[in-house]
# Entry
Amino acid sequence: MQTHELIPHLFKTEYRKIISVLCKLFGIEYIEIAEDITSDTFLLAAETWGLKGIPDHPTAWLYTVAKNKTKDYLKRNTLFTEKIKNNIRRSQPVTCEIEIDLSKKNIHDSQLQMIFAVCNPIIPPEAQTSLALHILCGFGVEEIAEAFLTSKEAIYKRLLRAKEKIRAAASKIEIPGPADIQQRLETVLTTIYLLFNEGYYSKTQNVTLRKDFCIEAMRLTQLLLQHENTNKPSVNALMSLMCFHASRFDARLSHKGETILYEEQDRTLWNDDLIAEGNHYLIESAKGQTLSKYHLEASIAYWHCTKTEPANKWEQILQLYNQLLQIEYSSVTALNRTYALSKVYGKEVAIEEARKLKLAGNHLYFCLLGYLYMDNNASMAIECFEQALALSKTVNDKKIIKGYLLQLSRKC
Amino acid sequence: MKEFMMLFRHEPNPASKPSPEQLQASIKKWQDWIGGIAAQGKFVATNQLGFEGKTVKSNKVVTDGPYAEIKEIVGGYLQIKADSLDEAVELADGCPILQVGGHVEVRNIMTR
# Structure
């Protein structure tokens, strides 16, 4: 990996680890100092590695520099050091020098606690998610803006306000008790889910799928599963969902990094180990009374991972989508439900239902309509795919739509 | 958008003993219909009511059964979002209760 690829990569995976450890050390109210030190570390990496080349152990290099920068900061700012000593006394025996513990275990603990410190109900849910994506996952402001379909400025402001709230509340970095855990966990899961989707459905062109995002999302979930208080049915369901999706990773990407549609995937490339893991977590998720949207999505993903086509597959999927929409509406779910409907009741019924969806600004809506008209009304199908083409934004989407148009023009 | 409530009324048939398969098929029908409304982003809440119940009247009179004087009972409700009563009525079209001789009462929900 070259410097210009490696640093953004390490930023994604290491930024949040260093920041979590520093926040735990300082107290969450000093999050911005932790951010400054961490950012400086990466800045120095960018300068040094560009000139002298990449060190043998880039991660270790980052940790050493972060430690030194922290020690320097503490030496220079004695007032701050005095203030945080109160916080530090609680967690480690006071020695003359403050220890910056970047061991694997402390990184794990800090991250898990940091997840909950960031996902705090005093911050509005959307701001929580933005902050978590930024601090815990190392997402850039631009990427967060894209994920939320809003401007960079809006995200900057949102992050700033969220940090102000955290500072004002000066909440402790810890795992919440049984009373708050369910509510707090929901935001955490939303964030992890977004992180996974950012990787899985990456909109970035010319770039291989961001497997790292997905792996990191799964690792965060694994952190939650390892702790007694956070090993809940919905967490298992989310893990199951991600395992099932990830099992098709290699099958849904061509060598050139293009998406391969589900029907055209080479099913021998599906990862059986991950499917087995998905099954395991799905069974685990069934313990207890909760039925979260993750349960439903994991169950749908389960059916999509069956290599044969059982007779009742689409009926089951349709019922799951019906339930999912009652828990949470989204245009994508509505479209997927209509596709499942066509598989169960035929395309005519599905067209009638699709027309009621009123999603005229959505290219996938016209893709679905185009697909439904394909067999019986080629000119209508062409019209729909052309509208889809005009509305689509990514190269990959356009390519797939053009493929359908070509197929249709041959028919006519 | 305003909120409306659909009340499903029907005359229960005490003689009918549906098989598990019939029950399953009936649930599917209802779910497909409600799913269609949810797919339009107009679903708010729903519940099916059981057959157990009593009716409380003045003077501490409690009678058995959910039905007061009429034979019809409310089998459940669906709370939805719609721009107008007309649209809400349109959404009631296709409700499975209509296939078994029941009917749907569509009412606006008062907002404070």
